[in-house]
Inverse folding.
C-alpha cells in the first residue's frame, strides 16, 4: 500500500494543492487523520483515500468554477 503527502495526493487527483486544502476546509471531502512526527503535522493519503476522493470530485460544487463560467459568458 502506497502513501502520499497532500501535495502528491493532489497531483494524483489532477487538482492543485490549494484546491484540495479548500475542499478539506469546506468539509466537502473526507480526509485522513493528521499525523505528527516531532513538531511537524501532516496527512498521509493511501491509495484508497485518493480513489475515494476521485469518485467524489465530480459531485463537488465548485463556486469559483461556476463564477468563472458566468463571467466568461457575460463578456
Amino acid at each position: 500500500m502506497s502513501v502520499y503527502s497532500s501535495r502528491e495526493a493532489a497531483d494524483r487527483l489532477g487538482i492543485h494543492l490549494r484546491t484540495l486544502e479548500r475542499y478539506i476546509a469546506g468539509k466537502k471531502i473526507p480526509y485522513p487523520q493528521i499525523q505528527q512526527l516531532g513538531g511537524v503535522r501532516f496527512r498521509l493519503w493511501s491509495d484508497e483515500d485518493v480513489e475515494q476522493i476521485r469518485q467524489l470530485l465530480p459531485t463537488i460544487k465548485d463556486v469559483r468554477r461556476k463564477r468563472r463560467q458566468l463571467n466568461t459568458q457575460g463578456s
The beta strands are 3-4, 34-37, 40-43, 45-46. The two ends are 48 Å apart (CA to CA). The chain has one domain: 3-74. The helical segments are 6-13, 17-25, 47-56, 63-74.
